[in-house]
Structures are given as C-alpha cells and as structure tokens.
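Please, structure for the following, as tokens.
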Amino acid sequence: MEKVRRAVKQIACTPPSQRLSTLSAFHLSLIPLLSIASSLYSVALRLRRQLYRFNLLQQHRLQVPVISVGNLTWGGNGKTPMVEFLARCFADDGISPLILTRGYGGADEAKMLQRQLHRTAAKIGVGANRVAIAARFLEQYGYVTSPGASQKLLSEEKPEILSKLDMIGIAILDDGMQHLSVCRDVEIVMVNALMPWGNHQLLPLGPLREPLTALSRADILVIHHADLVQINDIDSIESTIRKVKVSLPIFFTKMAPMHFFPCRDVSCKLSLKAVDNMSVLCLSGIGFADSFVQAIKRMGATYVDHLDFSDHHLFQLKDIEVVRTRLQELESQYGAKPIVVVTEKDYDRAPEVLEHFKPYEVLVLCSRLQFLACKGSTEDSFKKIMGEHLRQRSAGIYVLGGSGFHSESGRH
C-alpha cells in the first residue's frame, strides 16, 4: 500500500507533459484508473455543493465566530501551524479558542496541538462531527456572546465551575475549507509554495481537493514555505491566485526552527546546534517532507539523509528494520552514530515507537509558524484584516491589539 501511495504522490507532482519521460510503467498503468476516480470525485464535489446550495444539506451557525483554516491540496500547507498560531494569539489576549479538528491518522495533529497549547486557555475538540463536538464544548464551558454584556451559558449545571477564562470566545476549524456543514466568518486558505497545485488535477489523479476556482471563497490566502522558493515562483503563484480573485489579501509564512528535544524527555530543550557536524537521518510521515529536510540541511550537519513515508503513517516493525539498517549504513560510512530527527507530528503520533531506535539518539524538531515581511504584507497587517472580518460578525467584539486580537471593551 505504501508503494501505491508513493506512486500516486509522484503522479500528482508530475505535469502531464512530463509523464512519459519521468514516470515508470507502473506509474503509467495507474493513470487510467486514477483518471476515472478523479472524474467521479469531481461529480461528487459538484453534487455536494448543490445540496448545500439548495439547503438539502444544512449548514450550522455556531454561537461564536468561526475561523476556517484549510487548503486546496493535500498535506504540507501549514494548516496546523496556522491553527496553533491563531489559538495562541487569542489565548494570549484572554479569548478562549475552541479548535475543532477531524483527527485523521490517529489524531496526531490533535495530540500535537494538545501538547503545544496545554498551558493556554485553548480547548481542542476531536471528531468527524464537528457541529456536535462544538455543541458539547459550548455546553460544557459556556460561551462569550459580547464583551460587557450578558454572557449566556448553554449549561445551567454547576455554574460555579465556569469562569470567564473558560468560556469559549471563538472557534477555529482545522482543515475546514471542505467542511461545509459549519458556517464560517473568516476563510483562510493555505498554499504550499514548494508544490502549490501539483499537476492541476483533482484527487486522486492530482493533489487538488477542489478546482482552483474555489479560491474565490477565501477571505485570506497564505503562501506557506515562502522562504524556500525564489521570488519568481512566488510571483507565479500569486498570478494564478489573482486570476481567480483579484482582491484577495495574500500573506507569506515559513516554519522557523526553535529547538530540539530528545524523544525521551519532552521538557528538555536542545539548541539547534545539536546537529552540528553530525550525520542525520530525517524520518517523517508528513504531508510534504521537503521543507523539513531542507531545514535540517541548513543547520550545519555533515550529511543529511532522509526516509519519507506518507502522511499520518504509523511506523510498523518492517519500517523500523528499514530505518535501523539505514542508520547502520550511515554509521559505517561516517564512523560515528548518526542522529535520527523527526517532526513534532511524527513524535506525537506514536512516541513509544521511537524507543525502538536505541542506541541511536532521536531528536524532535520544534518549529513555529512565522510571517514574512514580503510585498507589503506583515503579521500586523494579517491581524488587522482578521480583526476587520471578525468585527463584521461580532459587532465590534474583536479589534487588533499589539500582540493579537482584543475585545473593544477589555479582555474577556
């Protein structure tokens, strides 16, 4: 199955004009079947949109403003780092955010968010039915309807355990662009600068979850990994976007490495210099591993090798044997034990699996989303536009503060 996943991903990244010259016979044999599946997927997409358009499928409005963070293509677009960034902004300003996430692949992204945000007021609801999950959390914690006004609690039981800080002030939909059952007040679409549209085909023949025309629904677009491409690549992506929606605000972000921690001790922070003059094996099961590998290469390692698996991949015994064999080869080649480096998402998926790589050291790279000052766009201007969209729903509940989003009449 992993072989098929890899083949499908390679097909999705290959322009049709280059298929015959770059793809193997096995890859080419899959294309007719993938084309049929892609056509059926397209029909299903259009039908689903019509069902919502004519109210045969219902959209639900939550009692708090909703921000959707999503994308048009599969993994590696920075959705979850953006969700964490937004949650921290709101939590730092006394607004308790509720993150609603589907929980794919053993809920590795949800586990990562829980670990990253456990000291904040953020709450994380995991499940396929995000309307029901939201209702449960709003009932349990209550919600803020407006600052300085009456605060309605959905649950009248044990009101003494509820505090203003606990009450939910905003909901964030992780991977929410295609989750049409929840009405949203701000639609943020993330685009991977390293592979924005692939071969421009719909799933599973290509990486697109929807046609590019769906960008017309976006309120804000963020080009992620913008630091890893040339300015002409950025210009090309922006040109494609402007053909769909001329006035769409565009921002630029990167993943900034912060520190490592050893898998045996999450509380221990190690400098990024921990890989200086070392041979490193990057091990990952994420949507787009190229950016991760490039980040490690920039840190001064003597040699960087990598083993990439499909998104949300849970390492099996056979995978562990492959990794150990590769580590032994690197040790023989360079005369010293190499270091294994994984992403936070890989760690949180199954930290116990990483124990199988002893006596080799396993480090976890911690990174955070950062905005780039590019083409007049900055983090501050992003927050300003966010505040403007939220004011339209909340009648002035949120305005931009120096470090995030504030209430006009004070902190909640």
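Confidence is low (pLDDT under 50) at residues 147-162, 396-403, 407-412. The domain at 256-368 is CATH 3.40.50 (Rossmann fold).
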